[in-house]
Design a protein that fits this description.
The complex is a heterodimer of chains A (126) and B (375).
Chain A lengths: L6 E2 L4 E6 L2 E6 L1 H7 L2 E5 L6 E2 L4 E7 L3 E5 L4 E6 L9 H4 L8 E5 L11 H8 L3
Chain B lengths: L14 H6 L3 E5 L2 E6 L3 H10 L1 E5 L4 E6 L3 H8 L11 E8 L5 E11 L2 E6 L4 H11 L7 E4 L3 E7 L3 H9 L11 E7 L2 E7 L7 E7 L3 H12 L4 E4 L1 H10 L34 H9 L5 E8 L10 E4 L2 E12 L4 E9 L8 E6 L2 E8 L12
Parallel strand pairs in B: 3-13
Antiparallel strand pairs in B: 1-2, 3-9, 4-7, 4-8, 5-6, 6-7, 9-12, 10-11, 11-12, 14-17, 14-19, 15-16, 15-18, 16-17, 18-19
Classes of the chains: A alpha+beta (126), B alpha+beta (375).
């Protein structure tokens, strides 16, 4: 799977919008920078996340980072597999390593996010 | 144009080899060093279960040689080298007159009148100046900062098998904290010490820069059947943290004395005069330090990091000096410097984790003890 149709933030999250539902994760570039991820702290179903605001924390062996919501909405699903298998984020950041699904309040807001090409020029990937 | 020069990071003689192995680099004390190759957890596991090979050439080597070498070293360090025979090594803090720790070093006695001190990368220049100034009092004794040398650390339960396979020679008789000179690995003469910084059995190997690529590749090739992995400083840090080994700039500094750092057994007040003795004696006479190093285990899915504050209720009682993830315990662990009144085993404390209070407990050190290592 390749995330050509995903939207990206400059904080290295992606969102894959299907209607008003958006699956959120971190980018391949981000997981490589973090190194081995050992704990992921996520919100609960029903919680609200706000565009640009932290919604969780990812702890790698090397460092700790906040996770920023790409768009505003209500948390519809949480990837509970990450409790026991946080390494999924390293192994498959655009697939099995997804973090949450958000019911997005205003899908049109996605226009303000980056395309894959824009994101890759930001991270210096050819 | 500004005349300000940004200091380019130094590189070891193995830099191109690390690059070829796909290492990720970071700056450590002005050196561009590998932090990881395949990943810190993988490398950590390799050292605990098989073997790992580290480039630690950023560490400094100071040679003290001459008729009064023993007196000079004895005066500079807190441990006692007077009974140290040639071919043996010991660990020691080096203190300032006020008892603060200037560095912590491994001292190899090569001959009765020649010592090698392996010192921290961040302190090599400071240590050299310190020992150099001391040598003024010992006119026939020379202090040199050894250059053009590389240092490898080969660590893990299979380290001996790997080095024997690489060299075709036996090492079984070499006890822990012993050192031999002129050990040959494919024609490369090496100084080999049985020592390390991971909590496992292993060796530190010194050779000339120009021979180290051959040495590194020979060891990696010989180690393949034993499950060896090239390891970066990331795994070195998680390994030493589990083994509760101090890191200068974290558990030790010029503001922290060896008693506070839990290193009192390396301070020999009875050995005679040495720099810092009076101040350290005073600490001992007033019943020990007010703050001490402890091990902490965090509750839940949190990793303590250096600088996190430690609380008992609303009272600040200390600070995390090193924190990280323990693959052995699958928990966040830390070394912290805390008030002695809250340092007993089982004491419950709180960590300020980015504004949130997280519970932790004072636990026995080390966090990990090797089942493979007799020493």
């Amino acid at each position: 799977m390749h995330p050509e149709n995903y939207h990206f933030t400059k904080e290295h999250e992606w969102i894959n919008l299907e209607g008003d539902k958006g699956t959120v994760g971190i980018t391949d570039y981000a997981q490589k920078q973090l190194g081995d991820i050992v704990f992921v702290e996520l919100p609960s179903e029903g919680d609200t996340v706000q565009k640009g605001k932290p919604f969780g924390v990812v702890e790698s062996v090397k460092s700790v980072s906040d996770l920023y919501a790409p768009l505003t909405g209500r948390v519809a699903r949480v990837n509970t597999r990450l409790t026991d298998e946080p390494e999924l984020v390293n192994q498959d950041p655009y697939g099995e390593g997804w973090l949450i699904v958000v019911e997005v309040t205003d899908p049109a807001e996605a226009e303000g996010l980056m395309s894959l090409a824009e994101y890759e020029s930001l991270t210096g990937k050819s | 144009m500004s005349s300000l020069k940004t200091e380019a990071p130094q590189r070891t003689a193995l830099y191109s080899v690390h690059e070829r192995l796909g290492a990720r680099f970071f700056d450590f004390a002005g050196w561009e060093m590998p932090i990881e190759y395949s990943g810190i957890l993988d490398e950590h596991r390799a050292v605990r279960e098989a073997a790992g090979l580290f480039d630690v050439s950023h560490m400094g080597i100071i040679r003290v040689a001459g008729p009064q070498a023993e007196e000079l070293v004895q005066r500079a360090v807190t441990n006692d080298v007077s009974a140290l025979p040639p071919g043996r090594a010991l660990y020691s803090p080096v203190c300032r007159p006020d008892g603060g720790t200037l560095d912590d070093v491994i001292i190899y006695r090569m001959t009765p009148s020649r010592f090698l001190l392996v010192v921290n990368a961040s302190n090599r220049r400071k240590d050299f100046n310190w020992f150099g100034r001391m040598s003024d009092g010992f006119p026939e004794t020379r202090v040199d900062l050894v250059s053009g040398r590389a240092i490898l650390a080969l660590q893990g339960p299979r380290a001996e098998d790997v080095l024997e396979a690489a060299s075709g020679a036996s090492l079984g008789g070499l006890p822990f904290f012993s050192v031999i000179e002129g050990f040959q690995v494919v024609g490369v003469p090496c100084i080999v010490a049985r020592a390390g910084y991971t909590g496992e059995d292993g060796f530190e190997i010194i050779c000339e820069d120009r021979a180290v690529i051959k040495l590194w590749e020979t060891i990696l090739n010989a180690g393949r059947t034993f499950g060896i992995a090239p390891c970066g400083l990331g795994a070195r840090d998680t390994l030493r943290l589990e083994a509760a080994l101090p890191l200068y700039g974290h558990e030790l500094s010029e503001e922290i004395n060896p008693y506070e750092a839990g290193l009192g057994r390396f301070v020999k007040l009875e050995k005679g005069d040495f720099i810092g003795r009076e101040a350290l004696q005073a600490v001992k006479e007033r019943g020990g330090p007010d703050r001490v190093r402890v091990g902490l285990m965090a509750e839940g899915r949190v990793i303590p990091r250096q600088g996190y504050e430690v609380f008992l209720g609303d009272d600040g009682v200390g600070v995390v000096t090193s924190g990280g993830f323990s693959p052995f315990l699958n928990k966040g662990i830390a070394l912290a410097l805390v008030s002695r009144s809250v340092s007993s085993l089982g004491q419950r404390l709180n960590l300020n984790v980015r504004g949130r209070a997280v519970e932790c407990e004072v636990v026995k050190l080390p966090f990990y003890r090797s089942p493979h290592k007799g020493a």
